[in-house]
Fold:
Amino acid sequence: AQSVTQPDIHITVSEGASLELRCNYSYGATPYLFWYVQSPGQGLQLLLKYFSGDTLVQGIKGFEAEFKRSQSSFNLRKPSVHWSDAAEYFCAVAYGSSGGSYIPTFGRGTSLIVHP
Amino acid sequence: NAGVTQTPKFQVLKTGQSMTLQCAQDMNHNSMYWYRQDPGMGLRLIYYSASEGTTDKGEVPNGYNVSRLNKREFSLRLESAAPSQTSVYFCASSGQNNQPQHFGDGTRLSIL
Structure:
């Protein structure tokens, strides 16, 4: 069964510092990979996705992520964090099915705290 | 705005009461999903519907039932609510070709 690990429950950074959130997945095939962000009291918003092709993907709000097959990782990065980036971040992995739908599995989330 | 709409946003129930959570999407998506979110647990899939007329169990289906009423609507029913079902419930939808999910804003449900 597919699984997703986000090793860090909480990450604290200073505003303006760089950020990397870790995500590892386990399965044999090449997955579809996603990062979502959740602000307090809100639903999840897609930051970026990887389906195929270039392993470095750009997303919204200045985020990027790199797919590394050899490490089964899809880490999220941002060069300079803003206070408004404080939120919960979820990594998700999915595999295509013959019916065209897919069932993502979500990690447990990483809470980002930004200090002024 | 286009998207996923969940009703109600908040609800308090007593143990043993029943309730239906409503979800509707206006993006013409084929697939719809119900998740629950508990602290430290991420999102866990309750049920999903790959297309109109089909539903399947997810990771945590016990105590829930679903109905895919039409392509737009996917409801979640608690027949006899239990305190362990206190959670935040999210509905999501996705289109074809493994496109990302779009999420509603959630229903915060407390069962006393």
